[in-house]
Amino acid sequence: VNIDEIPTPALVVDLDLCKSNIAQMAAALPGPSLRPHVKAHKCTALARLQRGAGHPGFTCATIKEAEGLFDAGLGDDLFIANEVVDARRIGDLVQKGAKVMLAVDSEATIEAAASGGVEEVIIDVDVGMPRCGCDEDDAARLADLARSLGLRVEGVMGYEGHAVHIRDLPKRNDEVQKSAYALLRAHDLVGGKIVSGGGTGSYNLNSVVTEVQAGSYVLMDGDYGTMALPFDQALLVHTTVISVHKKGWAVADAGTKAIYGTPHIVEGGDVMFSSDEHLAFVPEHPVRVGDRLHVIPGQLDPTIALHKGMWVARGTKVVERWQVDLSGW
Amino acid sequence: VNIDEIPTPALVVDLDLCKSNIAQMAAALPGPSLRPHVKAHKCTALARLQRGAGHPGFTCATIKEAEGLFDAGLGDDLFIANEVVDARRIGDLVQKGAKVMLAVDSEATIEAAASGGVEEVIIDVDVGMPRCGCDEDDAARLADLARSLGLRVEGVMGYEGHAVHIRDLPKRNDEVQKSAYALLRAHDLVGGKIVSGGGTGSYNLNSVVTEVQAGSYVLMDGDYGTMALPFDQALLVHTTVISVHKKGWAVADAGTKAIYGTPHIVEGGDVMFSSDEHLAFVPEHPVRVGDRLHVIPGQLDPTIALHKGMWVARGTKVVERWQVDLSGW
To answer: Which residues pair with A101 in a beta bridge?
Structure first.
């Protein structure tokens, strides 16, 4: 099948670019020094390519992602880098033979881990982004509590999400270093072999972590695309022009249910607005009804979560279809 | 099952409020004077309730929605109120016995309809929103072209999407009337028995249409909730507090993959930001890890498109689970 024959709107992965991103990252962060975050793509086929590049473990944001990876035979080194209040489904996975570490940042989440059958936890530390993560001063106390409940404390994590999208590299680096040293201080108090953190925007800046949790590098998006990172845009939303108005605007069939964040039209054009199934824009060059356009989504992760699958292409030829099989909760 | 035992994040429909919204609208616009838009909920179970309230037809935004309604036995009066470039899947539906009218606004979409096996079209007219729809002056010519290709022209549609969200009622009414009269002028030139348009924000203002395409009224959202419409918020996103920081913020487990548009926390609280799986906020009243919170999503339609199903509750009791079975394309 030629890529221009698939129904639109559709996610299309350029397999060669995707593999080159994976190889590039595996060269920079080989083996266990990268723990790819599957929330970016929610796709076991892609996780398998990352495993094939030598990374033994995965980072998850949801229990569903961990369950899906286990079902796909990729559940031997998982880390759910997020807090949960009911850990029983994780306990079930551990019973079945999965290895799943869980982030905790409070008495309540530690107790949920212990009572739910989790065996290994990582203390999540606030390193400057106002989201999950305990205060640095509480890390040691929480680690002690976890150990007293029979949990193995494998280390610390801290995500510098406030820093990874800063475009100015020296500023980004400053913020990443501040976070990294906060995480190191917490690790000194907590112990364990793992210091986990970082993302695509800090993969080569955060040198204190033992493993980087990057995910977006594998396909990239508009936000990361402005940051001079050595990864190529390997995913596009293919869309079809369905209406051209004589007053100068046109409409393509990829709206807010197909693209999350600001759409960037590769062929050029100023976006007017997006509605559910429409992208209204003023084209840079004349377009006709039926033309195919290619859009870089502003944000990769929630864009993929809107789709059931991705077409995989080499050049103009469809070579595979990947299911987005890790979405939901 | 008690509603507080379902895993979060989750869509929860209050069945009584939902049925009351449906009854309220059916009283205002009985039978064929409402053609409920299923893009709002993408759920055949809900479409069945709307059919039960006396509305014989449905509006769709995608071919997938029409296919799903047909498979559910609800395909005897469908209108795809959107342009398509490849109509063959619609032709297949018609072959199987579905009645499907299709919007067209150009030579290309009319030719696609004819060659794809569509039998009935509606001329889509620009009534002031810069999206699909032909110029008023072109409506007659396009109707002639369609008839010359053997298509039945059933009438006109025009969606006043630029007007339906105006909060000031007199201003909204003015804009709706301007659009309505543009649509009437086009109808005079085109002919046919259908004049289709309107939405939840103009359901009682647009008196020229023979059928209103409202959809959001059935569940409502934050945007429409500010407009003093006589419909209740019948859908909430249930979420669980997973982290409480001593500096004053807290985090719930419903991020951009669960809620589209600005989240409004029913229990009170200022939203700081949403990330993939997190809603960071400053609670109005103290919260604890494990507390359940209830969120009104800013925009209903794309919020539902992020979920696979909805829990249906009466009071605190789960009575049903509805699949979001019309999503995708």
So the answer is: A79, A120
DSSP-derived secondary structure for A110-139: HHHHHHHT--EEEEEB-SSSSSS-B-GGGH
Q: Locate the chain A residue with the closest alpha carbon to B302.
A: A257
The torsion angle over the Cα atoms of residues B311, B312, B313 and B318, rounded to 10 degrees, is -60
Q: In A, which residues are within 8 Å of B251 by CB distance?
A: 83, 131-132
Q: Coil, strand, or helix at residue B22?
A: helix
CB B257 to CB A82 under 8 A? no
Give the C-alpha distances (Å, rounded to integers) separating B131 from A251, B67, B185, B251: 6, 25, 19, 38
Contact between B200 and B164 under an 8 Å Cβ cutoff? The reply is: yes
Alpha carbons A11 and A301: distance in angstroms, whole number: 12
Helical pair B107-116 and B139-148, crossing angle rounded to 10 deg: 20
pLDDT band at A299 (very low <50, low <70, confident <90, very high): very high
Task: Reduce the DSSP state of residue B12 to 3 states and report it.
Answer: strand
| Residue found by looking up tokens 């203002």 in the block | B205
Name every chain B residue with its beta carbon within 8 A of the beta carbon of A257.
301-302, 305, 327
So what's the ipTM on this one? 0.96
Contact between A132 and B276 using a beta-carbon 8 Å cutoff: no
Predicted local confidence at residue A164, as pLDDT: 87
User: Strand locations in chain A, DSSP E?
Assistant: 10-14, 58-60, 78-80, 100-104, 120-124, 152-158, 194-197, 211-212, 235-244, 250-252, 264-265, 269-275, 278-283, 292-296, 309-314, 317-323
Q: Average pLDDT for residues B188-207, to the nearest whole number? A: 96
Is the pLDDT at A9 greater than 90? The verdict is yes
With contacts defined as CB-CB under 8 Å, which chain B residues touch A134? 245
**How far lies A313's CA from each of A11, A16, A295, in Å?**
10, 8, 16
Question: How many beta-carbon pairs below 8 A join chains A and B?
Answer: 145
Q: Which residue has the tokens 């409202």?
A: B214
Distance from CA of B26 to the nearest CA of A (A): 25
Phi and psi torsions of B89, nearest 5°: -65, -30
